[in-house]
Amino acid sequence: MKTILICLFALLITVPGYAIDGTQLLKQIDRNLNPESYEMYRKLINVEPNGRKMEYTFYSVKKGLDKLAGVFLAPASEKGRSTLRLGDNMWLYIPNVGKPVRITSLQSVIGGVFNNADILSLDYAAEYDVQNVEEKGNEYFLQLKAKTKTVAYDRLNLWADKNKKLPVKIECLTEAGMLIKTLYFKEVKDFGGGIVRPSVIETDSPLYKGYKSIMIFAKIKQKDFKDEVFTLTFMPNIESLR
Amino acid sequence: MRKSLFLWALGWAIVCLVLSWGSFTLAEEEYKFDPSEIEKKPYYIGGYLEFRPVIFGLDRDASLYKLKFFKRDEGKTIEEYNGKLQLEGSFEKGIARLFVRSNFDLKYSYLGWDHNETKTMIYEGYLSLKPTPSLSFKFGKQILLWGKGYAFNPVAFVSKPKDPDDPELALEGYITASADYIKSFQGPLKTISITPVIFPVYKDTNDDFGKVNKLDFAGKLYLLLYDTDIDFIAMTGGSRTSRVGMDFSKNITTNLEIHGEFAYVNNQTKKVIDSQGNTSDSEFDAKSYLLGLRYLTASDTTFIFEYYRNGTGFSHLEMKDYFTFIDKGYDLFLLKGNKSLLKKASDVTEGNYGRSNPSKDYLYLRISQKEPFNILYFTPAITTIMNLNDQSFSISPELLYTGIKNLEIRLRAIGLLGGKWTEFREKQNDYRLELRVRYYF
Q1: Per residue in A181-194, pLDDT tens?
Q2: Residues with Cβ < 8 Å from B199, sequence gap 6 or more?
Q3: Chain A residue nearest residue B402, CA to CA
Q4: Closest residue by Cα to residue A71 from A41, A105, A33
Q5: Nearest Cα to Cα of residue A69 among A218, A187, A233, A193
Q6: Which of A204, B22, B265, B412 is the most exposed place for a label (fewest CB within 10 A)?
C-alpha cells in the first residue's frame, strides 16, 4: 500500500513536468518572433545557383491575429506594389494599374522562390494546430497541421530552441508529406523593445534545386495601427505609415 | 530595311538578356541590410524608360485599312518605334502629399515623328491631405479606376477606357476633387468606405469627357461584407447622362476568385449608319454587365476569364452595315476619286464604331504560366478576346522576363481572325509583333 501511494505521488509530481502544452508553446514562439502588432522592414533575396541575386525591400505592418499589410520599397520596378491580407482575403495593388485587385491567397506577388505565405505570414498558432510535441536534446520538436485548407503549407515540422523558445528550423510539407521547403532561422539579434529573435531566415527547396532565398530582418518594432489602415481604400497609402 | 530594324532591336534585347544572365555570377557573400536603405525621405522620384518597336502586318482588304489608307500605299507592313518616359515624383510634409506622374511619348512611324500633346503629358498631378487614416482628400488630376473586371470595366464611369489588349497600362486621369472616408467594424461587415467626387467639365478642364460647362458628381460606396468586396457607384451632372452601377469580388476557394459588374446608363445615345450611308440616332437605357473569374492551378497557371455584355454596343448587323458602307465608299473613291462616303464613314467612327469594344458581347481569356520549367522570373501567357456576335477574335501569345534588376522585357504577337465584315477581321491589321523593353529607375 505504501509503495502504491509513493508511486501515485511520484506520478502526480512528475507528469506535469513532461506534459508540454504544445499550443501554449507555439503561442510563446510566435510572441518571441514578433509582437502581435508591429511594423517591420525586411529584405528578401533570391539567390540562383550561379550566385545571381534579386533583392526586394519590404515594409509590413500587422495588427492582431489576421490583419497584415505591406509595400515594396525596392527595387524600382516593384516600388509601391502593396498587398493586404485580412484573414483569408488577399489583395494586390499595383500603382500603374491604379486599383487593388483581389488575388487568390496562393498567388505569388513577386517572382522567384518566395510566395505570399512567406511574405504575409500570420502567427503560426493562428494558422496551425499542434499535433505532437517532443523534447529532443536542446530542442522542442513540434508537428503542426494547418487549421484550414487555405493555408499554403498543410503541415510543418518545427524545431525550436528550448531555452530561447525560438524556431531553429521549419520543414514545410504537403498533406501527403512531401517536403516543399525548409526554413533555417539564423543570427539571433536584439531588435530593441524586448524583441530578440533570428534576424536571418534562409530557405531552400527541393522544388528549386540549387536556389536559395534569404529573408533579412532590419527593424521590428511594436506599433499599434487603426483598423482603417487594413482596408482596400488605404492600400495606396501604406508607405505613409513609415 | 524596316523589318531588319525591328529584328535588330529584337536581337539587341536578346543579346542583353544573354549577357546579363552570365554576368551576374558572384562570389558567396554575406548578406547585408544597410539601415540607409530604409531611411524615409520626404521626396521621391522614379519612373521608367520604355522602347517599343512594333511591326503591323496590314490587311489591305479590311474595311478599316481602306478607311485609313485609301489614299496611300504603305506596302504590306508598317513599323512604329515608340519611346516613352514615365516620370513620377512626390513630396510629403505632415498630412500633405504632392504627387505627379507624367508621360512623354515619342513615336516614329510611316507618318514621321510624333509626340503626345503637352496637355496629355501629365497623367496624374494632385495634392492629397490625410488628417487621419480614416479620412483623406485629393485635389487635382487623378485616376479613379472603378470596377472589378480585369479587361473591361462597365462601371468605370469617371476614368478613360482601358485597352483590353493591355489592361495594366497606366491611364491618364481627370481633374477632380475627391474624399475617402473609411470605417472598420467587427463582424460580417468589416469595412465601409465612401468616396464622393466632384467632376468639373469645362473648357480646358476634362473637356474630352462630355458636354462642357457642367459640374458632375460621382460617388462610390464600398463594403467588405461576408468576405465579399461590394461597390455601389453613381454619377450624374449633365456632361454625360446619369448612370448607376455595382460590382463585387469574392474568393470562393483559395485558388478561385469570382467578380462581376453591372452598369445602368440612362438615355444613352448611339449613332448608327446603314449600308447606304443613312445615319440615325437612337436613345435608350443601356444595361452593361460583366462576370469573371481568376483561377490558379497547383502548377501556377493563372486563368482570367470574363464575359462582357456591352449594353451600348452595336449588333452584328449594325457592324456589318458600317463595314459594307466603308467598302462602298472605297469603291467610289477608286472609281471616281470621290471620298465623300469615306468622310461620312470616318465621321461615325470616332468614339462610336471606332472605340475599343464597339460590339455587344465579348469573351476574354488569359492564361499565364508563372516560371515554367523553373525558369525564374519568366512568364509566358496567351490571351484571346472574342466577339461573340460575329465569332471574330484576337489571339495574343506573349513572353515576359523580369529577371534583370529593374528591367522588364516583353515580346508579344497579336493575330486578328474572323470572317468577312466581322470586327477583328475588318481591323486595319492582320497581325502585330511587338517588343517592349522597360527600364525602371
Answers
A1: 899 999 999 999 99
A2: B158, B174, B176, B206, B209, B215, B216, B217, B218, B235, B237, B239
A3: A111
A4: A41
A5: A233
A6: B22
Distance, CA of A218 to CA of A216 (rounded, Å): 6
Is residue A186 less than 8 Å (CB to CB) from chain B?
no
pLDDT, tens digit (0-9, with 9 covering 90-100), for B327-371: 999 999 999 999 999 999 999 998 889 888 899 999 999 999 988
Q: Which residues of A are less than 8 Å from B46 in CB distance? A: 76, 79
Residue A164: enclosing H or E segment and its boundaries? none
Alpha helix stretches (DSSP H) within A68-208: 116-119, 124-127
Query: How far is the C-alpha of A199 from the C-alpha of A218, rounded, in Å?
Result: 7
- Asked whether B164 and B153 are in contact (CB, 8 A), the reply is no
Q: Which residues does chain A have with pLDDT short of 70? A: 1-19, 105-107, 109-114
Which of B35, B97, B376 shows the shortest C-beta gap to A48?
B376
User: Is B171 in Cβ contact with A98 (below 8 Å)?
Assistant: yes
B414 is written with which cell numbers? Answer: 497579336
| Bridge partners, B197 (sequence order) | B178, B218
Contacts of B169 in chain A (CB under 8 A): 96
Amino acid at A63: K
For A238, phi then psi, to 5°, come to: -60, -35
Is B78 in a helix, a strand, or coil? Answer: strand
- Exposed e or buried b for every residue in A4-40, given b needs 16+ CB within 10 A? eeeeeeeeeeeeeeeeeebeebbbebbebbbbeebbb
B283 vs A: CB within 8 A:
no
Give the best residue of B20, B28, B38 to mutate against chain A (max A CB count within 10 A): B38
Work out the minimum CA distance from B343 to partner chain A, whole angstroms.
37
Kindly state the DSSP code that residue B165 receives in the 8-state scheme. T
| Residues B152-177 pLDDT 10s | 999 999 999 899 999 989 899 999 99
With an 8 Å Cβ cutoff, are B294 and A103 in contact? Answer: yes
Of B184, B222, B440, nearest to A227 by CB-CB distance is: B184
Q: Does B368 touch chain A (CB under 8 A)?
A: no
Complex prediction ipTM: 0.85
Asked if A5 is an interface residue toward chain B (Cβ–Cβ < 8 A), one would say no
Chain A nearest CA to B31, separation (Å): 8
| Cβ–Cβ gap B180/A46 under 8 Å | no
The CA-atom distances, in angstroms, between A151 and each of A82, A105, B83, B235, B351 are 20, 8, 44, 41, 48
